[in-house]
Structures are given as structure tokens and as C-alpha cells.
Design the sequence.
């Protein structure tokens, strides 16, 4: 029974795949919880720092920091792209890249040059084939990103901004809405977009220690780092939940395939038995 | 007695949040004490101890540098989780650039891998097709 054996091997190979995908689903589910906790834990920092920046924009300081004021016309944009290191997480990375590429085409049609900073292997391998200029790369963050790791790539971007080689810095990442939905987000981080706060209209200013420039630079750099860090932990939560869902549907699909193949196998087996019986009966009648 | 709201946060967690009578923080130019109705202030911090004096006693928290923002009714302390030094940051920046250069120069070999993979997938599909057709004939 040649057909039967073929189907049997196919069934068992699908079952093996199913075992792997269901294991990956469970791993992703447990990692997702941790990633979400980390995302929540890092929120107070970025919220508080955002509040302070809000206060700062209302302070009547004599010193205007370059990170807070737009500089002339837009010639070069730096984009920090956050992606995952590993694949098998559905359309997560590709959705982000596609929405970013749309923006990039718009910028390029306005003859704005683009520089990229890629975080994660997927972004690195995707964008190096697009012919865009990549100035810095960060990969292999692991499951727990460390703040220290980010400083390098952010510094590259900020140095270029300080030197006037970039007029704007954007960040692209997947925003975590809930387990089922991840929203590809592209937003501007430098120069900062000013938010209005009520009740701060009177004339006042901070005391700066050691001086306005140092204190503000320290604060604003931390703000930018907090944004990027937040982006990374959020993207990681997205990655795990997206992988969990992708693996769940893969497991379900494998189950459906096994069911179908088993039906075919049983039919073939029955047909073979029937045929054998009828042959025997036919043979006996002939005798 | 009036109180001042204190928040101490780091990038990875919220360390302290609550009302206090006064707060002491290790600013770069010397320790500062903050009571309610303090004038607005922004200062960098050096590594040291932050003391929060509340009605129930004194809380002592270690920070490894960071920023303090003072508003008349709130104090926010951003504690650093990363060790900062200019030359250390510089080294990291150079590393990041090197990785970018590596990635760009490796583009060729990676592309080869992906084209080979595509070719392999195609011939696999052809083989499957052939074996299926053979199976039907039999």
C-alpha cells in the first residue's frame, strides 16, 4: 500500500511541526507576560520625563536648546527603526517596514536625504537591501534590553544632529495596543513637539545647576533615550504577542491538515480493503 | 504642615512615589534640601543618597546619578540605570557605527544566501510537482 505509507509520513511530519509551533506558542506566551511587565514598569519614567519637558517648554528660559527648536528647512532626516531580532512573528516587522517605506518615498520625493539607525536584525537585513544609508546598527538585544546598550546608537544620531548634519530624528516602532493589535508607529523625537499645559502661563524660569546648557542637555538626552527604550520594550511586547498569535494559528492549521490527511488515508485504506475482499470473493466464485 | 510630592523613577521601574516633608538630593554642585514651595530648579545629580523625610520616618534611596526637577509642589528624580562617561559613550557610538559598516559590506553574501534559498525552494516545488504527477499516473 504505497499511497498509505506516503500519507502516513506526511501526517507524522506535520505533527512534528505542530509540536514545535505549539511549544513556540507557549514560550512566546510566557515571554509576552514578562515583556508586558517590563513595558509597564518603564512607563512612569517616560511619563514623568515628558511632564518635565512640558514644564520646560513653558519656562521662560534665555537659553533655547537646539533639541527644542526646529532648525531651518528639512534636508536630512535620521530614522531610528526598531525591529525584532528573530522572525516567525507574523507580519509584525513587515508591516512596520512597509509603513515606514511609504514615508520614506514621500521624503525622497521632497529630495530629503535619509539616514537610518537600525535596531534588531530584521531591520538591518531589510534596509541594507534598499540602498539607504545606515549609520549605526544595534542587534542581539536579548529578552531584557539594557539601557547601556542603547547609548551608542543614540549618541551617533544626536552627534550628527548637533553637527547640523541631520535636521530631524524620527523613531519607528510597533506600538503595543493590546495582545491582538500592534500599531506601526513613526514619530518625531527631535526637535521636540511642544505640548501645551494649562496654568503655567505666568512668567517663571528654573534655576539651572550647574548651568542651563548642561542641565538641559542631560535632561533632553535622557528624554530621548527614554523614548527609544520605551519603543524597544514596547516592540518586544508586540513581538512576543504577535509570535504567540502566529504560532497559535500555525498550530491550528497543522491540526486541520492532519485531520484532512487522516480522512484521505482512511478512505484509501478502506478502498484497498474493499478491493481485496472483492478480489477474494471474485477468486472464490471463479473456483 | 504642607507636604511635597516626591517621585523617584528609573528607566526600568518606579522606585518611590509619595508625599514628604522634605527631600535631600546629591546635586552635582553640592547636596540640596528641598522643602515645599521651593523655586523651580533643574539640576544634574551625582551618585549618592536621596533622603526622603516623611511623617513615618526617613526613606533612604541610592541613586547612581541622574536629574532632579523641582516644582513648588513636586519633586521628580530621574535615576540613571546606565553608567555614564563621555569616553565610554564614545566607544559605544563607534561600535554602533562599525556594526553598520559590517552590515552594509555583508549585504552581498546575505543576498547570495537568500537567492540560493529562493532557487532551492523553486526546485523543491518542481520536484514535488513531478512526484505528484508520477503518483497519479501509477
Sequence:
Amino acid at each position: 500500500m504505497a499511497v498509505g505509507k506516503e500519507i502516513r509520513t506526511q501526517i507524522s511530519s506535520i505533527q512534528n511541526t505542530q509540536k514545535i509551533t505549539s511549544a513556540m506558542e507557549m514560550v512566546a506566551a510566557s515571554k509576552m507576560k514578562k515583556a508586558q511587565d517590563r513595558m509597564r514598569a518603564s512607563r512612569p519614567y517616560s511619563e514623568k520625563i515628558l511632564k518635565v519637558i512640558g514644564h520646560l517648554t513653558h519656562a521662560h528660559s534665555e537659553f533655547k536648546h537646539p533639541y527644542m527648536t526646529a532648525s531651518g528647512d528639512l534636508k536630512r532626516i535620521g530614522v531610528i527603526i526598531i525591529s525584532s531580532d528573530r522572525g516567525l512573528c507574523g507580519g509584525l516587522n513587515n508591516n512596520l517596514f512597509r509603513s515606514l517605506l511609504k514615508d520614506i518615498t514621500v521624503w525622497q520625493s521632497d529630495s530629503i536625504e535619509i539616514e537610518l539607525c537600525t535596531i534588531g536584525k530584521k531591520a538591518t537585513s531589510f534596509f541594507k537591501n534598499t540602498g539607504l544609508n545606515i549609520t549605526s546598527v544595534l542587534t542581539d538585544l536579548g529578552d531584557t534590553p539594557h539601557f547601556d546598550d542603547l547609548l551608542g546608537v543614540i549618541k551617533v544620531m544626536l552627534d550628527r544632529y548637533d553637527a547640523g548634519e541631520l535636521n530631524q530624528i524620527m523613531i519607528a516602532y510597533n506600538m503595543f495596543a493590546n495582545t491582538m493589535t500592534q500599531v506601526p508607529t513613526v514619530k518625531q523625537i527631535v526637535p521636540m513637539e511642544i505640548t501645551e499645559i494649562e496654568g503655567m502661563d505666568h512668567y517663571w524660569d528654573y534655576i539651572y545647576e550647574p548651568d542651563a546648557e548642561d542641565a538641559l542637555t542631560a535632561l533632553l538626552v535622557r528624554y530621548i533615550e527614554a523614548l527609544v527604550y520605551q519603543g524597544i520594550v514596547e516592540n518586544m511586547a508586540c513581538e512576543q504577542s504577535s509570535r504567540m498569535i502566529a504560532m497559535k494559528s500555525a498550530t491550528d492549521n497543522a491540526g486541520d491538515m492532519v485531520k484532512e490527511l487522516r480522512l484521505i488515508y482512511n478512505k484509501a485504506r478502506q478502498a484497498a480493503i474493499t478491493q481485496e475482499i472483492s478480489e477474494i470473493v471474485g477468486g472464490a466464485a471463479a473456483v | 504642615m504642607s507636604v511635597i510630592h516626591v517621585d523617584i523613577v528609573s528607566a526600568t521601574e518606579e522606585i518611590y512615589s509619595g508625599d514628604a516633608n522634605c527631600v535631600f538630593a546629591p546635586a552635582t554642585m553640592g547636596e540640596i534640601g528641598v522643602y515645599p514651595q521651593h523655586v523651580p530648579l533643574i539640576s544634574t545629580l551625582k551618585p549618592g543618597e536621596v533622603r526622603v523625610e516623611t511623617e513615618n520616618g526617613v526613606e533612604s534611596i541610592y541613586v547612581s546619578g541622574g536629574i532632579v526637577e523641582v516644582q513648588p509642589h513636586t519633586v521628580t528624580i530621574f535615576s540613571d540605570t546606565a553608567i555614564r562617561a563621555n569616553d565610554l559613550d564614545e566607544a559605544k557610538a563607534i561600535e554602533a557605527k562599525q556594526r553598520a559598516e559590517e552590515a552594509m559590506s555583508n549585504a552581498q553574501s546575505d543576498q547570495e544566501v537568500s537567492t540560493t534559498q529562493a532557487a532551492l525552494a523553486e526546485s523543491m516545488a518542481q520536484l514535488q510537482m513531478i512526484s505528484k504527477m508520477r503518483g497519479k499516473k501509477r
Notes: Chain A is about 60% helix and 15% strand. The helical segments of chain A are 2-58, 92-109, 121-127, 147-162, 212-286.
